[in-house]
Structures are given as C-alpha cells and as structure tokens.
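job 3f2a | input accepted
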Amino acid sequence: MARVIVDVMPKSEILDPQGKAVHGALPRLGFNAVTDVRQGKRFELEVDTADDATLAEVHELAGSLLSNPVIEDYSVRVEA
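job 3f2a | predicted structure (80 res):
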C-alpha cells in the first residue's frame, strides 16, 4: 500500500478569507512572527501502488473532483 497526498490551495491571486481570519487572530494570541497565512485542503489517498498509471489517475481526480481549477491549484506527492 502507498499513500498519495493531494494538497489543494487557493491560487495566489484569489482572496483567502479563512487565511486572513487566522492571520488576524495570531497577534491576539501572542504569535507575532507569522507574516501571512493561506488555508487549503489536504487529501490522503491510499492506493495499492504508486505507479505512473495510478498517479495519472490521481492527477485526474485531483483536477476534476478534489479541486476547483478556476480558483485552486493542487500538488500530488507520494508519502514515504
């Protein structure tokens, strides 16, 4: 079994109100070193094998179901 991680983040030009809310709360909680926050999603997919065909299928899944390609970018990686 292999674990494939799909990270989905808002595109840089898209406003991120959740990230801004977290960023605004940090100084009130005493965290002053953080200069920006972007919030996204992480999906962990268990697959039998992480071969090229499976990764191609995961890319198709990530681009059509797990993310909105108009406002989000995604990355796929295999976790060791």
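job 3f2a | Strands lie at 2-10, 41-47, 72-79.
job 3f2a | closed
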